[in-house]
Amino acid sequence: MDTIVEASVLVTCPARNFVTLKITTADGVVGWGDATLNGRELAVAAYLRDHVAPLLIGRDPARIEDMWNYLFRGVYWRRGPITMTAVAAVDMALWDIKGKVAGLPVYQLLGGAARDGVRVYTHASGADVPSLLEDVARAKERGFTAIRAQAAVPGVEGTYGVKHGAYYEPANAALPEEQAWDTPAYLRFAPTYLAKVREEFGFDFALLHDVHHRLTPQEAARFGRSVEDLDLFWMEDPTPADNQESFRLIRSHTTTPIATGEVLSSIWDVQHLVSEQLIDYIRLSVTHSGGISHLKKVFALAELYQVRSGSHGPSDISPIGQAAAVHLDMAIANFGIQEFMGYPDLVDEVFHGGPTYADGYLHVGEESGLGIEYDEQAAARFDYTARYLPVARRLDGSVHDW
Ligand code: EZ4
Ligand code: CO
C-alpha cells in the first residue's frame, strides 16, 4: 500500500490569491487540490495546515471515499464553506493521485466522457450599455455561445459584475469597499439592457444574467416575469437561498429558468431546491463543495429531478479547481453549462496545463489525473496579498446582501 508522506499548503498571488494543497505519496506521486475561498483564503489554509495535514500522513491515498467521510464526519463540526473547501482540496488531490497511478485522466475514472466537450459561458459587462454591447460582441467573436451580461446601474457606484480592465475581479481592496445598492433602480434598468443585447445580437445564443442575491422573492418573481420574452438561459441567484423555501414564490410566478448555489457547499444546502424542483441549474463548485466525490452526489440527486449542473467557475477558483470541474462536467449525465471567466496572464506562470478552450467549449486532455501542475518556484515569487470582496449598502446606509 502506498501512503501519504507529505501534505503542504501553498499560498500564492499571481494577480490574485490562490491556496493549493500538495499531497505527496511514498511512491513519489504528487496530487494537487484547490483550496481557494475568495477573501477568506488564510482561514482555509490554516484549517488544512493545522488541522488536516497532520491527519493525512500515513494514510492510504487510494481510499478517497473513506478519507472524505473521515474528514467530514470525523471532525464532528460539519459543513460550511471553510470546512467544505478544505475537504474539497484533499478530495481533488486524491483524485489527481488516483488518475496518475492508474495512468488515466480523472474523467475516465468517473465513468468516461458523456459528451465531446464542456459548453461554457463567459462574462460580458460594461460601465454603460454601449460598452456592454461591445463586450458581448467581443465574446461572440471569441466563439462563446453563452454569455452573461451585466451593466452598471446608473447612479449605483460599483455595481457587482462589471469589469474594470480585462477581468472581473470583485475582491479589489485591502479592506472591503462599501458599494451602494438601489433595488428599484436595478429593477427599472436591468430588463432594458438585456433587451438591447437581444435587439443587437438576436436570440441564437444563450443569454445569462446574475442577480447576485439582490432581490426579495417577490421582486425576483417580478424581474423574472419582466424578462420572459428575452429567453434568458437563466437568472442567477435571484434571492439568497438561505431559506430554500423562498424559491417557491419565484417559481410560481415566472418561467425564467433559475440557477443558484455558488455560495452553498453541501447536498443538504440544496436538498429542497432540487427535490421540489424549485430551480433549474445548480451552481455548487468542486472547490467549495467538498470536492469531486461530494459534488458528483449532488449532481446525481439533481439528475432525478431534471435539474442540471451549472458550476460556478470564477477566476477566484484556481485552474486546479477549474480542471477538476471540467473532468466532472465531462462525465455526468445532467451537465448544463460551466462558468468560465478565464485568468489574468500571470496565472499561467504558476499553473501549467489544464483544459483548453476552443469555439465555446472547454476540453480536458488525456494526461493522467487532473492534467494540471503547480509550479512551486514560480508561485514563490508572488506573496499573499489581503483582498476582500465588497460590502453593499442600501441608500439608507443599511447592509444589503452582496
Ligand atoms: O461574485 O466568485 O457568478 N459569478 C459570481 C462571482 C462571485 C465571485 C465571488 O468570489 O457571482 O463573480
Ligand atoms: Co454569480
Secondary-structure topology with pairs:
Blueprint: E1 4-12, E2 18-25, E3 30-34, H1 41-56, H2 64-72, H3 81-102, H4 106-109, E4 118-126, H5 129-141, E5 146-151, E6 178-181, H6 183-201, E7 206-210, H7 217-226, E8 232-236, H8 247-251, E9 258-260, H9 267-275, E10 281-282, H10 291-304, E11 308-311, H11 319-331, E12 335-339, E13 351-353, E14 356-358, E15 361-363, E16 372-374, H12 376-379, E17 391-394, E18 399-400
Parallel strand pairs: 4-5, 4-12, 5-7, 6-17, 7-8, 8-9, 9-10, 10-11, 11-12
Antiparallel strand pairs: 1-2, 2-3, 4-15, 13-16, 14-15, 17-18
Helix pairs in contact: 1-3, 2-3, 3-10, 5-6, 9-10
| Secondary-structure class | alpha/beta
**Overall body shape:** globular
CATH homologous superfamily designation of the largest domain: Enolase-like C-terminal domain
Q: Provide the list of bound ligands, each named once.
A: (2S,3R,4R)-2,3,4,5-tetrahydroxy-N-oxo-pentanamide, cobalt (II) ion
What is the terminal-to-terminal distance?
48 Å
Number of domains: 2
CATH architecture of the largest domain, please?
Alpha-Beta Barrel
Strands, count = 18
What is the tally of helical segments? 12
In percent, how much strand structure appears in the residues?
15-25%
Strand order in space, largest sheet:
4-5-7-8-9-10-11-12
**What is the arithmetic mean of pLDDT?**
97
CATH class label of the largest domain: Alpha Beta
SSE order: EEEHHHHEHEEHEHEHEHEHEHEEEEEHEE
Rounded Rg: 20 Å
